[in-house]
Design goal:
mainly alpha, elongated, 77% helix, 149 residues, 7 helices
Length: 149
């Protein structure tokens, strides 16, 4: 039992590190320049470099990544570049709506899944069964927010 739990914990840690690495790479190389987003129409190269220094964007990548991990572990997600509010505050404000949408979509999926499962079992092997299977596969493939709407 201890061996199983240990393997699961190690796998979880590896998964978290890989996920955080992917997020770091996406944020570092995939998005626009943070200085441009912060300054918008007031953009000058001098002010942009000042912001890049403040954000530590000239530091080596491994230093940036370790800072990123440390901030994640402390729950410090930074400040929104769009409205200046802390990101954790933005996330907490949106959480009730996200929960409501997810629960609504899950309820719809549960009711439709049971209903269509009973129908598919009743019409097993017929074209109705195959059609229901395709519809349910499409429903499972859609994100919760689409089903919730």
């Amino acid at each position: 039992m201890l061996k199983f739990v240990t393997k699961r914990l190690v796998a979880a840690i590896v998964l978290i590190l890989l996920s955080s690495s992917l997020v770091f790479v996406a944020l570092t190389f995939g998005g626009p320049d943070p200085a441009m987003l912060i300054l918008r129409e007031n953009f000058t190269e001098v002010s942009a470099n000042a912001i890049r220094v403040k954000l530590g964007l000239f530091d080596p990548l491994h230093v940036q990544y370790l800072r990123f991990l440390k901030n994640l572990l402390h729950g410090e997600l930074g400040t929104s570049w769009y409205n200046g509010k802390p990101v954790i505050q933005e996330v907490l404000e949106a959480f009730p709506f996200t929960l409501q949408l997810t629960l609504g979509a899950s309820l719809v999926a549960l009711v439709m899944g049971v209903f269509n499962g009973v129908l598919a079992a009743y019409y097993q092997g017929t074209w109705k069964d195959h059609t229901l299977r395709v519809i349910m596969l499409a429903g499972v493939s859609l994100p919760d927010f689409v089903i919730g709407l």
